[in-house]
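anyone seen this seq b4? input:
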Amino acid sequence: MNLKELEPDSSPQAAFGAHVRRMRERHGWRQEDLAARMQYSATHVSAVETGRKVPTLRLARSLDRVFGLEHKPDTFEREWREVRNGSMLEGFPEYVGYEGRASEIRVYEVGVVPGLLQTPSYTETLSSHAVRGNRITAEQADDRDSTLVERQALLGRIPPPQIFVVLDESCIRRPIGEPAAMDEQLKHLIEFAERPNTVLQLAPFDIGARRPVSLPFYLLTMPDRSLMCYSESAQQGHLERDTKSVLPLLSAYHQLQAEALSQTASVAMLEQLRKGNL
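predicted toks r here
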């Protein structure tokens, strides 16, 4: 693909590539020159410029460093986030923005440990299998992992948010990765429960029909006490920002917590599972 064939308006990814080319040419550099400064191959730079390769967060930050754009308003990192958000499920990028500012976070998950509580090994296993299954590219996997690291940073925020998590028993029964990696994940859940600002509960299989909800969702309470909820299907995400519409889900969550095991019993179940006694 040559310069005339590249159409910057065709997609955010193409616009990103055209921006890289403009900045490179403004500095009088060849692709090889830019690649050497970024510690990438010239082939990689060419593929990004022509829109054939999805840019990653690492590449965007490298571009900002090379072109002296760090800490400026219009950075390649900002543009990368726009490119990435265009491929995410509807509502999720907006949800992540609110999540980082929420005073309370309530999570209900089924089948998989939620991202906020995943260890790097657990995340890497999920991403690598998605790549091998051709569900995402390697670059998208890198971006997914980077996004998760950024989301988990809220756990160290001062003051930290209150986080309530209810995990369906399937989350801890489903093995992800090697036994040692899964053991590490279970240990991480126990450590999460020990935090002063968290509550972790397991919803055992025997709740049966008493389970008030069956699909995962996230509830946020913002500093102004407004509520919002994020849920998704395989193809679509939805962020509900109307507090009145979210209140019934909050009531269902409280009922779910009442039916679930206490945190003490949940931790005991995790410890027994680690020992192989269940």
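The first strand starts at residue 104 and ends at 109. DSSP finds twelve helices and six strands in the chain. kinda curious what u guys think
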